[in-house]
Structures are given as C-alpha cells and as structure tokens.
Amino acid sequence: MNFDVQFLGAAGEVTGSMYLIRAGSHKVLLECGQIQGSRKDELRNRHRFPLKISEINAVILSHAHIDHSGRVPLLAERGYTGPVFTQNATRALCSIMLPDSGYLNEKDAEWENRKRERKGLPPVEPLYTRAEAEESLKLFRSFAYGESQEILPGLSLRFHDAGHILGSSIVELSYASGGQMRTLVFSGDLGYQDAPVMEAPARLKRADMVIMESTYGDRLHRPFAETIEELAGLFAEASARKGNILIPAFTVGRTQDLLYLMSEHYDDWKLSDWQIFLDSPMAIDATHTYAQYRHLYGAKLFSPGASTPDLPNFHATMSTEESMSINRIRSGAIIIAGSGMCSGGRIHHHLKNNLWRKECHLVIVGYQAEGTLGRRLVDGVPSVKLWGEKVIVKAKIHTIGGLSAHADQAGLVDWYGAFENRPPVYLVHGEPGAQEALASALRSRLQAPVTVAERGMTVVVGR
User: Fold this and answer.
1) pLDDT tens by residue, 20-62
2) Looking at the structure, do residues 271 and 186 belong to the same domain, yes or no?
3) 366: helix, coil or strand?
4) Sign of the torsion angle spanned by Cα atoms 178, 181, 182, 184
5) Torsions phi, psi of 136, nearest 5?
6) What residues does 337 pair with on adjacent strands?
7) What is the mean pLDDT of residues 95-109?
8) Number of domains in the chain
9) CA-based nearest residue to 172, from 143, 215, 139
10) Residues 61 and 170 in one domain
C-alpha cells in the first residue's frame, strides 16, 4: 500500500502549514498556508511550489487562518483547478479572509513600489490580488462535521471539531487499497478545554499515524479564572489612568472570544465606562459568520436573531472615516483591531496614536511569531518604526496568555492520550523548543512513539 506524508511547511516553525499526502496515484495537499513573520520569511511565499501543480488532485484545509489557507489563491493563480475541501464554516470564513489577504497584498506592493520608484528599481507584483482570491473561492467544496466523503477513489475524508476557531477541524483521512485500510489523523490547530466560545476538541480513538501541532508544547496555560481576574484588574487600572486600551486581535477566533467575555463580565469589569470599538471590517464580517453558524458552539455570544454581540456600547467601524475618528478619543476607548501580530492592518494607526502615551495599554492576547512587530513589542523594544517614523513605547504592555486559541502542553498530551493504540505521532507547527518539550512529555507520560518532523521528511502511514 502506497500511503505516505511529506512535510513541506510548518516543520520546525509555526506558519506556512503544508503537507503532501500520496495515496496510491493520488497527490493531495493537506493545508496550503502562508508563511508569516519577518519580510525575509514572507518572501518564501513567492517560491515555486515543491511539486508540479498539475499533479495535485485535491487540497484539504483544516481551518481558515491564513497560515493554513493563505496560499490557495496563489496555487490557483499558478494553474490549480481541482477541489479545495473544507468544513462548511471554514469555507464561509475563507470567503472573507482570502480576499482580505489579497487586498493587503495589493496595498503592501503599492507601498513597496513607491519606495522602489524613488530608488529607480523595478516594481514588484502582489503575491496575489483580491480578485485572484475571489476567483479561487470557486474551487471550494465543503461539508459538515462527522460526514465521511470519498474525495478520490479509495481516499475518504472526515472532519471533526478541533475547537480552535469556527469551522476548525481535525482531519481524518482513510485510504483503502488491496484489501487494506490505513488512517491518518491530522490535529489541525487544537483548541483548549476552557475556551470561551468554542467546544472542546473531538477525541479520536484510533489511527495509524498522527500529525499534531505543537505551538504551545512547552508551556501550561494559567487557570482560566486567573485570566478573568487579570482582565478585570487591567480594566480597573486603565480606567484609573484615563487612557485607551489597544487589543491587536486575530480577527477570527480571538476577537469573538473577547467580545463574548466582555458581554459576560460587562458589569464586573465596569465596561459601561468605556466605548468598545471593533475596528476591522474583516472581523465584523467574521463575527456575522459566527452568528450564522452559532449552532456549532454553545456560548451565548448573540441574542436570538441578532448578529452583533450583546454589548450596549459596541461600535463596529467599517469605514476608514469611522476608524480615523477613533484616534480623536484620548481616553475611554477599547479598540480591537487587526492584525493579531501587529504586522499590518488598522492596529498600526492606533499604535502610532497611542503607543507613546504612558497612560495607555497594549494588550497582547495571542501568539506572536518571530520577526513580527507584536513579538518585538512583547520582547520590550524601546521604540518601533511605523511608516518610517520612530514611535517610542511608553504604553503598558500586557500579555494575556490564558486567551490562547491553542491547547497547551497538558491539552496536547491529553488529546493524543485518547488514541488507544498509541500510533506514531509527528510534531509540526511549533518552534524547536516547544516541539522538543512536547516530545519529551509524550514519551515520558504516554510512551508515545514521537518524532519531530523536519522539512522534506517523508514517512509511510502505518509503518
């Protein structure tokens, strides 16, 4: 039986997820993610794909985050015409996120070309455009959790809830050939037990091989009650200092968690003293999608029939003019804006207007990849450059780790522990330190046959 996996991306790093599945004569890309981080890292997105595009029979996406889906438009622009399989809600979110990614690519190229023109250098093209992203959406095919679909002869696909963001999936691939059947399970990005909105990840019992993320494989999240207390203290301190609160948040997942928690603790945190701005058109659209697919989770983020959160002082600022008007507010604004790693988007404008003010607060609520502005701010840089202008960092910076959408080491070990036959497990989607720590924990606690995947490595499923 010919059934193997080659690790092409997110091996020894967090972003750029991509794995090649060979099942008989079939070739399937599992994930087609964009590399995020420093400018040097992101230039790798422009490299040729590591196999002939004409040979790819199908693409499978575990969820909509750009580091898992963001190169699908590029793949299509370079000639791919086959299906892209996702869970239903993931397809809906990709229809928001991929065109937005294309728009940002166009703006980045426009900004870069202004500089290149002044230097007499030739212009660059965007990685892909908004129109190319919208065209690629025609390739998407989706179905619900728990349904088994034969996507190619002998190869069946089933999605299970991963609890990470809306539509996020554990991918179960089974291949039957010559009277044998083997099953590969890919964790995707796993959520955690106490997530504010999403359900806990599904637990599977058997597989012949497991590919598992390891983003937080070297740490334990604090108890969620402590996170709630920390947020309460933060709002109280900020109220006393009379400044603004900036929250760079991933537009899908983290934003909806924050809005739910603000609704749930509205009185406790005295949020009536604040104006809450969701300053991201994509996050506003994504929140409407959460309302559309509310049957996938149990939290009361919305009143019956409503598509906006239960917050009386909530403002969804779609237009540029509305966004700019926020910067006239000197005190009492909670501003949630993308991007989550401060690598672009409207958060840059709010950082420029607030980061130098000691009475303001910057609240980091998600993973910050190496090379991103968010990571530099967490690491304590004294100043940053925004549009070529130096901005000193005087705002108080908080890192709220308990709001991560990823399982911690204990959650990852527990999830793998549900497999009764202890299948070989290959770790991806993590920095080297996190992967080695998780590998050690899996070996010592569960005697798991664990390997840290390396880029280019090929392994046979079931051997």
Assistant:
1) 999 999 999 999 999 987 888 889 999 999 999 999 999 999 9
2) no
3) coil
4) positive
5) -65, -25
6) 248
7) 93
8) 2
9) 143
10) yes
